[in-house]
Write a structure and sequence with these properties.
The chain is of the alpha+beta class and about 260 residues long. The protein contains five helices and eight strands; from the N terminus they run αββαβββαβααββ. The chain has a four-stranded mixed β-sheet with strand order 1-4-3-5. Strand 3 and strand 4 form a beta hairpin. Belongs to the UPF0145 family. It comes from Kineococcus endophyticus. This is Heavy metal-binding domain-containing protein.
């Protein structure tokens, strides 16, 4: 889009501090990009007394997010962007249809002012990189000689078994671990994490930073939950890394203002 004087305008959901630090890192915002997918999530019923992954629901949640991400990346590619920063993934279940949800991916497309020592900021597949890091974290990452490769994610929708009446009564008033629940939550998180790590290995990342491991109940009742792992896969830009030393900052207010 161009303004009255013919200059290109950009839109961004970065805060002022994030915008300025992204500029300081050598990138220029070119527009807010968005991908969306309205998706009907299928039906699957878990067994009452068995811990188990709901693989049909897992596939739906992953596929819908992937569609939204792909469309956001396509918008950024049309703008000639080298990457997308501050990416957010959101889900909103709609009231006008059972099990219908909109999956949204949104972020700020940026263009680099200069190529990195490795030749390009884009991914091995020639696509703009994606990252959910804040502008501050993005600046710190680039200053230290690393670059984001892409958002990686893993998901697992898991049914946690119900306890029988006798088992429930046996622990009334007692301090005792419920191993059945512990194993279910551990297994579900492990599956989500391993799938995220597998995505990072596919893009030949050195590691993943800013990992979040979320528990999202959605609409499936108290015994079925989605465990969602997401983070930014990174690669080194050079062999030596100059890492800024943390500095002490004293606020001049007492927190009441």
């Amino acid at each position: 889009m161009r303004g009255d004087h013919g200059r290109a305008l950009f839109t961004s959901d970065l805060s002022v501090n994030e915008f300025l630090l992204v500029r300081e890192a050598g990138f220029r915002p070119v527009g807010l990009v968005l991908g969306s997918s309205v998706y009907h999530v299928g039906l699957q019923v878990g067994r009452w007394s068995k811990n188990m992954e709901m693989d049909k629901l897992t596939q739906a949640m992953y596929h819908a997010r992937e569609l939204a991400m792909t469309r956001m990346e396509a918008e950024a590619a049309e703008l000639g962007a080298d990457g997308i920063v501050g990416v957010r993934l959101e889900i909103e279940f709609k009231e006008y249809g059972n099990d219908i949800a909109e999956f949204i991916a949104v972020g700020t497309a940026v263009v680099a002012e200069a190529p990195p020592p490795t030749g390009t900021w884009r991914t091995h597949h020639g696509l703009p990189f994606t990252s959910d890091l804040s502008g501050q974290d993005f600046w710190t990452l680039v200053q230290a000689g690393y670059a984001p490769l892409g958002l990686v994610m893993g998901t697992c929708v898991y049914h946690i078994a119900h306890r029988g009446v006798l088992a429930s009564m046996s622990t009334v008033g007692a301090n005792v671990e419920i191993e059945q629940f512990t194993e279910a939550l551990y297994d579900a998180r492990e599956l989500a994490m391993s799938r995220m790590q597998a995505e990072a290995e596919q893009v030949r990342a050195e590691g993943i930073v800013g990992v979040q491991l979320l528990s999202l109940p959605h609409r499936w009742g108290g015994h079925t939950t989605e465990f969602f792992a997401i983070g930014t896969a990174v690669r080194p830009l050079r062999a030596d890394h100059t890492i800024a030393k943390p500095s002490l900052v004293l606020p001049l207010t007492d927190g009441r203002w």
